[in-house]
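3'(2'), 5'-bisphosphate nucleotidase
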Amino acid sequence: MTDITTTAEQLTDAALARRVAETAGEILMTLRGSDLFRGKALGAAGDAVANAFIMAALREARPDDAILSEEEAADPARLANTRAWIVDPLDGTREYGDGRADWAVHIALSVDGHATAGAVALPAQSHTICTAGCVAPGQTEGRIRMVVSRSRPAAEALKVADALDAELIPMGSAGAKAMAVVRGEADIYLHSGGQYEWDSCAPVAVAQAAGLHVSRIDGSPLVYNTADPWLPDLLICRADLAEPVFAVLRGPA
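Predicted structure tokens:
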């Protein structure tokens, strides 16, 4: 943990992202443990409370930076700022409201459109991963493991899984899926069913820092802090699996 005597202004961007993500996660766990809300009401309360804290914390620590949050109206002025924090205060609202563990807090910094620093907190799993000191998982033996949506596995993901004989692991939030790959619990996370910048920026920053492959599913780079925050697909996987995945997506030559 960072020395608590260090002020927010003195923290590196990665350390700030970690501290904000962890604290937001603690707030969310306390809220869930209060038993004052249930189900959808708990999810809505979690979104609101976590967002209020994150916005206040980042504005205090980095007053000159822009912020794009899922829970705030996008400010067009952010487009003129080379530094933009892109956050999802509660990724996996349904899972959080249902009492599950596969939800996350995303805090990331985009510099000139690139995810450069960030943290993904998994509060119900007592784990936070940030871009500082992140290490790539080693190659594992046995079947390839692929995380997919619990409710709507993408057709492209199912196609890849079938071609590579991958074991499917249903999971909730995007952050939880991506961190399963970072932690070596899965090998591929392919999503093509629609996302926004806040769904992927922090996971992508962490995955990149861990040495994993990250891109759009056509192989193009992921670009952030754009006029339209819709960023519908991504691939996070072990570097050695990127080309086999692309080969399946391209189809017969």
